[in-house]
Amino acid sequence: MTDIKRQFIELVKNRSKENAESLQDDFNKRRIGKCLETLRTELDSFIRVMYLGRISDINERERLMQLTLSSEKWTVLTLNNKWKQVTDKDMVEKADELLGYVHYVYKFGCGFVHLSDYYNYATTNPFDKLNDKEKVDIKIYLNQYHDFPIGDELTVESVTNYIPEVFDKISTNLTCYFEQILNNEMIKM
d(Cα 173, Cα 176) in Å, to the nearest integer? Predict the structure, then answer.
């Protein structure tokens, strides 16, 4: 087991710990936009670990982890022998092979990470910006894992009390994959 893997996992753990503390503080103070932003940040760590866990070349995994530790962007060699930056979209697509809801939660959370009208959630329902399939998929996920009533409308108000549970689910799943990364195993669902 290399120091790179241990350092990378420790970095992710530190980020998750701060995310959990931030989410709890913001939730207690009802700063829901900040909660959703933190949820998206935790999902970013999850997606990165999932992306790494779908790479069979262990040296390539470690190279990407080293790039993170060096504060560099992830890049991959294309078929044309050129370096291309790995985008959030690339990582979400790779994670989406395993868990379809990841894409929707990530997309929705981006509205709270970037300055957008999603922060008008007190007067305008940001879920209205999603298409019907996205809404249904989020409802199914919330119902399956958190008993959200499938007939309820998706609004910030209707999902607020589920935010800590969704965060815990993502964080717990993330933690489960650390051993697979540390032991050079593939992440499978």
Answer: 5
> Are 113 and 51 a contacting pair, CB within 8 Å?
no
* The residue type at 50: M
Higher pLDDT, 13 or 122: 13
Query: Does an H or E element contain 158, and which?
Result: helix 156-159
Residue whose pair of structure tokens reads 């697509």 in the numeric block: 93
Residue 167 corresponds to which amino acid?
F
Residue 171's nearest CA partner among 59, 46, 25 is 46
* Token pair of 1 as six digits: 């087991």
* 174 within 8 A of 46, measured Cβ to Cβ: yes
Instruction: Name the pTM for this structure.
Output: 0.86
Domains in the chain: boundaries: 3-182
Q: Which amino acid is at 129?
A: K
